[in-house]
Amino acid sequence: MRGLSVGVDVGGTFAKLGLVTPKGDVVRSAQIPTDPRSSPADFVRRVAAALKGWEFDTMGLGLAGGVDAETGTLLFAPNLRRWVGFSFKREFERRLKVRAVADNDANVAVWGGYVAALHKKPRHVVGVTLGTGVGGGLILDGRLHRGATGGAGELGHMIVRAGGERCRCGKRGCLEAYAGTYGLQRIARRAMRNPPSPLTPKALADAARAGVPGARKVWDEAGGWLGVGLANAVLMFNPDAVLLLGGVARAGRLILDPVRRVFATQPFREPFASLTVAAPAERDWGCVGAALLSRERR
Amino acid sequence: MRGLSVGVDVGGTFAKLGLVTPKGDVVRSAQIPTDPRSSPADFVRRVAAALKGWEFDTMGLGLAGGVDAETGTLLFAPNLRRWVGFSFKREFERRLKVRAVADNDANVAVWGGYVAALHKKPRHVVGVTLGTGVGGGLILDGRLHRGATGGAGELGHMIVRAGGERCRCGKRGCLEAYAGTYGLQRIARRAMRNPPSPLTPKALADAARAGVPGARKVWDEAGGWLGVGLANAVLMFNPDAVLLLGGVARAGRLILDPVRRVFATQPFREPFASLTVAAPAERDWGCVGAALLSRERR
C-alpha cells in the first residue's frame, strides 16, 4: 500500500519489524532473531525474507549503537560488534529498491514519539527511553541531533548519584542504574519485603496501585533519580518538552509525579515553567520512529 | 575605525566595555558601574557616554540572565530584576545608530572562544565559563543554541554529586559548588592547612605549582567534579570540542588533567576518543564574544 513504511528495531536478541502509517500506527508486525554472530548481509537477507508480501515505500532501521546517519553505517555497537562498518542503508536500498535510513535505536524511538505523539510541535525536545537500559535522543530545532560521532543523547550514562549503584557500563551512579528495568528491580528487592514475581515494571506498577507496602517507594526513588537526570538535561538544553518512552514510562504518574516534584523544586524556574512533560501510551517506538524517519527529507 | 565592534559584559557590579577587532583582540577597554538599581535606559546612557570617541560598526551586550536574542530583551535575571522586559538591542540601536545584539553573558563568552580560539572549526561545542559562578553555552551546528526560553547551557547547576555541597542557588551538589571560585575556596579551606591569602584561583594555582602541601589536591578535586559534569554533557551532546573559559580555567593543566582523567575512564569511548579539550589563554571573553556576535549575520 502506498504511504506505508517499514521500521526495524534491532535489539541484541530480536529484531522487531513493523509496517507503519504516516501517522505512526503499526498495521502489521513481525519478529526475527537478530543473531548478531551472523554476518550483517545475512541479517539483511533474513529481514528481506520476513518482509515478503509487505508493501511499503521506504524503510528505516534502528540499531543499538553509534550510526553514521548520512551513510547508514554502524560505527560502534557493544552488542553488534561484527556489524560495525557495514552500511545497512546501502544494502537495504540495493536489495529492496526502496529508500532506506539507519540510525541509533534510541534516536529513532525519540523521533517516533516526536512525530506521532508530539506532532512535531515543540522545537527542542529531550527524549529518554526507559527500557532494560536507558537511552535517549535530542531533537534540536526540529531535527535529530546526532552529535560529532553519532552518539548524542546518551542520557542513561549521565551520573546522577556520584559513587552510587554500579551500572552495567562499569561506572557508578548512572541514571540507567536507577531508572532502567534492572535498576528498578534492584530498588524493589531492597525496598519491598515481598517484591512481585516476575519482577517486571508492569508488576511493580500494579503493586503500587494496589497499595502493596513499599511499592510506591520504589517508583518514588526511581522517579526521583530520573528527575535529577532530566533536570540536568533541561538546564543544559532548555527544551520545550521532555518525552518519556519505554516500558518503565508506562507506569505513568507513578514515575512522572516524582519527576515533576524534582522539577518543581528547581531554583532556576524559567526552563521548567513552561516545560511539557509527556509520556505517551506505549508503542513499538523503535519501529514507529525508524519507519517515520525514513519518510523525512534529508 | 572600520571593522571594529564594541562588546559590553554586564556583571552585577561592573560592566566591562571593550573595542574588539574581528579576530577577537581587545584594542581599548573601559569599565563603568552597572548600578542595577538605576533604570535600564539610564544604563544605556552611561554606556553611550563611556563610548564617546570610540569608533565602531556594531555592538554586542552580554547580560547575566535569560535573553531573547531576537529582540535583545532581558527575560529574567536574578541580579538585574529592574531591567527585565527591556530591549537593550533596540535602545542601543536607537541611541548609537549601530547594529546591536544582546544575549546571555555565558553564551557570548562561549561564542567569543568559539570564534577567536577555535576559529569556528568544530561543529558542536560545549563551553563552560568557570568564574565566581559557573555558566556555559552550547554551539550547535556552528550556531549558539539558546533553547526554549533563552536559558540553555546552564551547566553550572547540573547536579554532579547528589547530596553534596550547598550551591548558592539552594540546591546541593551543583557543578558550580565545586568548580566555581567559591567552590574551589571551600575545597581549599578544608584540604589545606595554610591556604593562600587572598584565596584566589591564581594563588591556588601558584601554590600547587610551588608544591605547597594540599594545593594540588584542591585542583584534583575541583577538576574531578568538573570532569564528571563535562562527561555528562559530552554523553548527552556528543560535541567535537569542550571549551573551558574563565578565571578558574587559567589554571591550565592543574584543572585540565583531572578532567582528562575522568574522560579517559569512560566506558563509552567514542564520544571522548576524538574530543578536543581547549582552555585558551584568558581574555575578557564576555566583551570579545559580545562584540564578535554583533558581527554575525542573523
Summarize the structure in words.
The structure is a homodimer of 298-residue chains. By secondary structure, chain A is an alpha/beta fold. Helices cover 35% and strands 21% of the residues of chain A. A 5-stranded mixed beta sheet of chain A has the order 3-2-1-4-7. In chain A, strand 8 and strand 9 (134-140) form a beta hairpin. In chain A, helix 1 crosses helix 2 and helix 5 packs across helix 7. The longest helix of chain A is centred in the C-terminal third of the chain and has 23 residues, at 215-237. The two termini of chain A are 23 Å apart. In chain A, 55% of the residues are buried. At the A-B interface, strand 9, helix 7 and helix 9 of A face strand 9, helix 7 and helix 9 of B.
SSE blueprint and pairings:
2 copies of one chain form a homodimer.
Chain A: E1 5-10, E2 14-20, E3 26-33, H1 40-50, E4 58-63, E5 66-68, E6 73-76, H2 88-96, E7 99-104, H3 105-116, E8 125-130, E9 134-140, E10 143-145, H4 176-179, H5 181-191, H6 201-209, H7 215-237, E11 241-245, H8 253-264, H9 270-273, E12 276-278, H10 285-293
Parallel strand pairs in A: 1-4, 4-7, 8-11, 11-12
Antiparallel strand pairs in A: 1-2, 2-3, 5-6, 8-9, 9-10
The end-to-end distance of chain A, rounded to whole angstroms, is 23 Å
Oligomeric nature of the chains: homodimer
Overall pLDDT of chain A, averaged?
95
Count of alpha and pi helical runs of chain A: 10
Radius of gyration from the alpha-carbon trace of chain A, in angstroms = 19 Å
Biggest β-sheet strands, sense, barrel of chain A? 5 strands, mixed
Q: What class do helices, strands and sheet pairing of chain A give?
A: alpha/beta
Low-confidence stretches of chain A: none
Helix % of chain A is: 25-40%
Strand/helix succession of chain A? EEEHEEEHEHEEEHHHHEHHEH
Question: What proportion of the residues of chain A form beta strands (DSSP E)?
Answer: 15-25%
**Strand line-up in the sheet with most strands of chain A:** 3-2-1-4-7
Secondary structure: number of strands of chain A: 12
Show the largest interface.
A-B, 51 and 50 residues
Shape of chain A: globular
